[in-house]
Amino acid sequence: MFGLRLALSKTIATGPNLIHQQTRNTFVLKRKWPPPLHKKGGKPSKLRARHFVYDLIEDTSVTKKSDLKIILNQFVDGVGNQGDVLSLRPTIAYRDYLLPGLAVYANPENLEKYQVDESKPKVTSKYSSPYVQRTMGCLSRLVLQIIMSKTEPWTLQPWHIRASFRKACYVVPEHAIIMPPVTITGPDLSLQEKEFYVTVKINNKEEVNVRCRIHHWATGLERLPWVKDHWKKPFEALIPEQASVLENLPLPT
Hints:
A hairpin with a 3-residue loop joins β10 (194-202) and β11. It is elongated, with a radius of gyration of 35 Å. By secondary structure, it is α+β, with helices and mostly antiparallel strands. It starts with a helix and ends in a 5-residue tail after the last helix. The protein is 21% helix and 23% strand. It folds into two domains: 26-33 and 49-119, Ribosomal Protein L9, domain 1, CATH 3.40.5.10; 132-248, Ribosomal Protein L9, domain 2 (Roll), CATH 3.10.430.100. The strands form four sheets. Strands 6, 8, 10, 11 and 12 form a five-stranded mixed beta sheet that branches. The model has no long low-confidence stretch (mean pLDDT 85).
């Protein structure tokens, strides 16, 4: 019986389903009851069971690891430019930057390769903010619906554009909105199937064109029918001078 059990245990231990993986763990311990000292040259005292009771001082596997320094090897939208040194948590650095190939370790070789000098101030980017490029991309793909009255006379003003941006979940102040070169008045149903663009200035530096369309709103029988996926369809330019710019603006998919 003992021989069968021994053979079975050896078979299980050497089976292909077991995974032998080495781990690096360090535990700092301290004896709860120190053993007695012995005289010089004398025989050490025999250790008893209580001498093998330890208090855990430190477990390195659960100790918070220090931040990891990395160097961006390319421009990362919303983060920084090539050569910028970031100090991040190890999990974030591995997952979001090192594994995708967006950054490298900030070791002496890479610091020399990318000519990084942490004592020097960072080179100013061509954008006023790390988020400007992303913001410009979102606004350029936006089809801004401007809801105007079908029954009451109106003249398109910057505050109409600001309110339409707010309805689309964008906060754009009036001083950052550059209106089209012509005055648009209504109600005029001929504006319903046409579009134009306004220019938004970001941080008083970058400019982006935003596609706009006027929709006449009314209640009851005067209400216009709803058009499915109207934002995906190209419309005629209201201002002929803006036609070439509108053709280059992307439509949402």
